Amino acid sequence: MSRVPYPPARRDDIVDDLHGTPVPDPYRWLEDPDDPATKEWLDAQETLFRSAELEGRDHFRERIAELLRSGSVGTPSWRGERRFFTRRDPDQEHPVLYVADADGERVLLDPTALDPSGLTTLDSYQPDKEGNRLAYQISVGGDEESRLYVVDVTTGQIVEGPIDRCRYSPVAWLPGGEAFYYVRRLAPSLVPAGEEQFHRRVYLHRVGASPDDDVLIFGDGLEKTNYYGVSVSLDGRRLSISASRGTAPRNDLWVADLDASSSEAPELVTVQQDVDAQTGLHFGRDGRLYVFTDLDAPRGRVCVTSPETPTPEHWRDLVPEDAEAVLSDFAILDGMAEPVLLVGWTRHAIGEISVHALETGERIGEVPLPGLGSIGGIFERPEGGHEAWFSYTDGITPTAVYHYDALTGETSLWEAPPGAVEVPEATTEQVVYRSKDGTEVHMLVTARPGSGPRPTILYGYGGFGVPMNPGFSATTLAWVEAGGVYAVAQLRGGGEEGEQWHRDGMLGNKQNVFDDLHAAAEHLIATGVTSLDRLAISGGSNGGLLVGAALTQRPDLYAAVVCLAPLLDMIRYEKFGLGATWNVEYGSADVPEEFAWLWGYSPYHHVREGVSYPATLFAVFASDTRVHPLHAWKMAAALQHAQAGDRPILLRNETEVGHGARSVSRSVELSADQLAFVARHTGLKAG
User: Fold this and answer.
1) Rg of the chain over all Cα atoms, to the nearest angstrom
2) In what order do the strands lie in the sheet with 350-357?
3) Residue 175 pLDDT > 70
4) What is the model's pTM?
5) Model confidence at 620, in pLDDT bands (50, 70, 90)?
6) Which of 585, 607, 603 is nearest to 594 (CA)?
7) Which has fewest Cβ within 10 Å: 95, 223, 479, 636?
8) In this prediction, what percent of the chain has a pLDDT beyond 90?
């Protein structure tokens, strides 16, 4: 294999002095996407990528598309006898939002009908408490800049919107459907240049009124990177507001009695403030306040108290912390003589649901589940009852919705995805290995029957407390069916073992995450699953940072790397996209101690000339407003300059999509390119 000729990229003599350390940045000019030089370079990179020999692309494209014909179904949200849910039929590009009632099912929102180009996505939705109106949010072209609308459920007519600047906004309806609390950013003219993505506030909006007349409820003068949550109890009496600085694993929390103060000027009472814990509240139909918290319980616990005494000193454990399982969800079923509490858990990322006496918390049983997989949220009827709904998926099972009846103790299939697909014969094994410091780490390994070293993709994330739970993946199954192995490592930094597991991989502990990945790779090689020349790693976003660090720290260990929408310049990441909200996870280069952490692993700054690097594919998205593509652009230029070996460094740029949701056809193309690239460089023959 001859060395690939790369598009020329000038190297500027830019060196910053940060806390006495010289920090070179030769490709800073690539931070400007409008610079003609950047555009010319990107065009040349696109030509290079499209000329790459990826023989398996057509095979993977066809097989992934076929597997995605399973379609999808969402868990229902009930409002009286109406239920709201999403479904995607086999040939549809996006899930469609439906309502079902005594008159049957009907479409409330079809993103493709709104926009036949497929660029519009449904970001979220929230029906009012009576089910008569529904607020929904859509965005276009992957920018995730949600615009909020309200639709009349009976007529299907839009009665409100668009209201802009509603990215990541919860909607909390007051009874009657005439008003709701929500979160909106300040107008760009009111904030400093470069801070338009921040400065959120909680407002009260009355349907039909101008958003300019919304009543400011909360957030004025607080941290610019705060995210806010807001909810209103079923009876409309209790308002709760939470605030988190960026993505910090802690929140401040307030409640107000709307009977004792007005909805326009609620008198907020502090539940917790400046406490290093995450807490959520649920006002029960029985008059009790249920508290979901990891305060003094990194794996989570459920407590109870009175709404009149909501602060931690009054909490009483109802379901205490489990020594091994992480508490993920709960639901109250009170439509029988002895009400029960359903509690969702993950045990080393495998889902389970336990049944408890609501009054005492005593564990009295378990909800039967279809297998060893992942459980979605547990939903009950807001007005109570004896039924609950949840989603289930595992490595070979598309997500389906199940129904649990507390009167009979039985679980049954509620709705399967609409498309029937044949999946390959494959099994998933959970293995345990030891990391560099001796910590036990779990890994899910999916493969077809067989033995001997095989082309293997090792996937990881390791950040923000996000767990890597098992689930149906067309990409995984297409790879495994073609003869490969797919492994998912549950690295520190994630949420598989609770909040302490997360903290063991954040801030100054970030190197633990990289060590966990290296150890996973070494375990797969030592146990004969794969070999050095057949092992690839893959990750996106924070996982892109993971594999970027891995390829610079251990270029000898990996044959190929797929790096999607990555963070790679960890010295300047706060200056772009939503980076300023992540310094609570990574640290800030403005702080000397934290700069030292970042400087110790920042992938862009650890590229060295004369090193033989793995074959690397960067994939980025032009409308990504979370992680700017510049990270991959600069890193690709640095690696292409430094590469001493003959394995290619390629850059895939995609327009009109962003960091999150996309159409099925766009997902198929991206996945096919990734698998074909990895197959080419790990020796897998597809098709």
Assistant:
1) 25
2) 325-333, 340-347, 350-357, 363-366
3) yes
4) 0.97
5) very high
6) 585
7) 223
8) 98
Q: Which residue has the tokens 């939470």?
A: 242
CB 273 within 8 A of CB 226: no
Q: Report d(CA 679, CA 687) in Å as an integer.
A: 11
**Separation CA 616–CA 550 (nearest Å):** 12
Cα–Cα distances in Å, from 24 out to 27, 525, 637?
9, 36, 14
Among the listed residues 496, 495, 491, the one whose alpha carbon sits nearest the alpha carbon of residue 349: 496
Whether 388 contacts 404, CB under 8 Å? yes
Helix, strand, coil tally for the chain in percent (to 5): 20, 35, 45
CB contact set of 422 (below 8 Å; sequence gap of 6+): none
SS3 state of residue 328:
strand
pLDDT band of residue 428 (cuts 50, 70, 90) is very high
Distance CA 118, CA 113 (A): 9
Q: For residue range 80-138, what is the model confidence (pLDDT) as tens digits?
A: 999 999 999 999 999 999 999 999 999 999 999 999 999 999 999 999 999 999 999 99
Helix (H) or strand (E) run with residue 241 in it: strand 238-245
Tell which residue, 669, 564, 662, 621, has the closest CA to residue 64: 669
The pLDDT assigned to 687 comes to 75
Contact status, residue 376 vs residue 388, Cβ threshold 8 Å = no
Pairing of strands 133-140, 120-127: antiparallel
Distance CA 2, CA 15 (A): 34
Whether 451 has a pLDDT exceeding 90, the answer reads: no
384: left (phi over 0), alpha (psi -120 to 50) or beta: left
What does the pLDDT read at residue 1?
A: 45
The 8-class DSSP code of residue 623 comes to T
Q: Which of 94, 184, 169, 185 is nearest to 125 (CA)?
A: 169
Q: What DSSP line would sit under 346-377, residue for residue? A: EETTEEEEEEEETTT--EEEE---SSSSEE--
Query: Over the stretch 506-548, which tens digit does the pLDDT of each residue have?
Result: 999 999 999 999 999 999 999 999 999 999 999 999 999 999 9
Sort residue 52 into left (φ over 0), alpha (ψ -120 to 50) or beta: beta
- Distance from the first to the final alpha carbon of the chain: 22
Q: Mean pLDDT across the chain, nearest whole number? A: 97
Q: Using 50, 70 and 90 to split pLDDT, how confident is the model at 2?
A: low
Report the DSSP beta bridge partners of residue 291: 281, 303
Q: At what angle do helices 592-601 and 511-526 cross, to 10 degrees?
A: 20
Residue range 290-330, pLDDT digits in tens: 999 999 999 999 999 999 999 999 999 999 999 999 999 99
Token look-up 């962003």 returns: 658
Active-site positions? 541, 659
At residue 130, what is the residue type?
E
